[in-house]
Specification:
Length: 379
């Protein structure tokens, strides 16, 4: 509706259904005092862009990820686009990516003047694999984008091995996987470069838009720092073509600094919620994708059902909100459908009609989880 604030479907207001898919207000309330103190600090400081909060967040997030360089940007899609450009791919070259990850990588690939090519995903994990990537690699490929979908670490080492053999770089899309892995081997430090989103529903969410690029490669970090700010190598001196303005603002950086120390606990809580769903769905006609262990941070609780409409109707009847991440594979999105008409991705296409996302966020109450479990058990 005109004039209404835009929110993605997974960021619903708290007053909606009995069990909402997400409730951002609860996340604010849990840390209200600290978040408000952080906002006040920024307002009173008078430095609103690339100030001390931003510098501190870059340092703290880089340390959390195991000593990587961190470059704050405006959102996750910008992080993907600038990461791609930082790798200096040949103009017009091909980027391999998955088609089941919400069109974000495709958007960034097009914005960077590159061409997407899709690899299919594994039917158990819904992630790219070294084999599926290798099947579509060619001399025209410059980069592979690996999305840690739903919070689960993909096999970056395996994909890197097949990519490296052809001189192809690997970009991790960590938007859904902040904190996945273990200290020293975390998402964001495994490929050549990585992109994070701090969209409010993410595991590490801001109170508005935000994003970051991380890398262990000093050359890539230098390019990214230039490209996020007009291509400047020094103030008002452009050293790199293709730059733009994408900055993580000072308020969001301050909020993220309040939230980062809680990330591991929140990720654990998400895993516990998903473990309850897995247990409840044992023996019924749906499969809940498990999220156990450090390599999964339970960003989304996703089930696979033969008859998704019936499952959704049962959830609806119990006042439980659900959604689909994502209903249309990238190669079948309207602007692409003619161009990719001959592309067939059997697993991606089948799963788009079977997946369903259940409520999962750290502040979800025990009674709410019980309510979802009752519906799952009765399926
Ligand atoms: C996998 C993935 N990549 C990229 C993005 C883009 O992030 P943003 O919305 O901050 O641009 C998102 C989330 O929105 C995402 O889930």
């Amino acid at each position: 509706m005109a004039g209404e604030p835009e929110q993605k479907a997974d960021a619903v207001a708290s007053s909606s259904p009995a069990v909402p898919l997400n409730d951002l207000k609860r996340g604010y309330e849990a840390l209200a005092e600290e978040l408000e103190a952080a906002a006040t600090r920024v307002l009173r400081n008078g430095w609103y862009v690339h100030g001390p909060e931003h510098q501190a967040f870059e340092r703290e997030f880089g340390e959390y990820l195991g000593g990587v360089e961190c470059i704050g940007v405006g959102n996750g899609t910008d992080a993907l686009e600038i990461s791609l450009k930082s790798l200096l791919p040949s103009p017009g070259s091909v980027v391999v990516t998955a088609a089941n990850a919400g069109m974000y990588s495709s958007t960034a690939i097009r914005r960077a003047g590159l061409i997407p090519r899709y690899a299919d995903v594994d039917p158990e994990t819904l992630l790219l694999t070294p084999e599926s990537v290798e099947a579509v690699l060619g001399d025209d490929v410059s980069v592979v984008v690996v999305t840690h979908l739903y919070g689960r670490l993909a096999d970056v080492a395996g994909i890197r091995a097949v990519a490296r053999a052809r001189g192809v770089a690997v970009l991790e899309d960590c938007a859904q996987a902040a904190g996945a892995g273990e200290p020293g081997r975390r998402a964001g430090g495994l490929g050549d470069v990585a992109a994070f989103s701090f969209y409010p529903t993410k595991n590490l969410g801001a109170l508005g838009d935000g994003g970051a690029i991380t890398t262990r490669r000093p050359d890539v970090a230098e390019q990214a720092r230039r490209l996020r700010q007009y291509g400047w190598e020094a103030k008002y001196r452009v050293g790199q073509d293709g730059g733009r303005n994408s900055r993580l603002d000072e308020l969001q950086a301050a909020f993220l600094r309040v939230r980062l120390p809680h990330l591991d606990d929140w990720n654990q809580r998400r895993r516990e919620v998903i473990a309850r769903y897995v247990e409840a769905a044992d023996g019924v006609r749906v499969r809940v994708l498990p999220a156990s262990g450090a390599d999964h941070v339970g960003h989304l609780a996703v089930l696979v059902a033969q008859d998704r409409a019936a499952v959704r109707a049962a959830l609806d009847a119990a006042g439980i909100q659900s959604d689909v991440h994502y209903p249309v594979p990238d190669h079948q999105q309207a602007p692409f459908v003619d161009h990719f008409a001959s592309v067939s991705l059997p697993v991606t296409e089948e799963m788009a009609g079977r997946i369903l996302t259940l409520p999962c966020f750290p502040e979800l109450g025990k009674d709410e989880v019980d309510r979802v479990c009752t519906v799952l058990r009765d399926l």
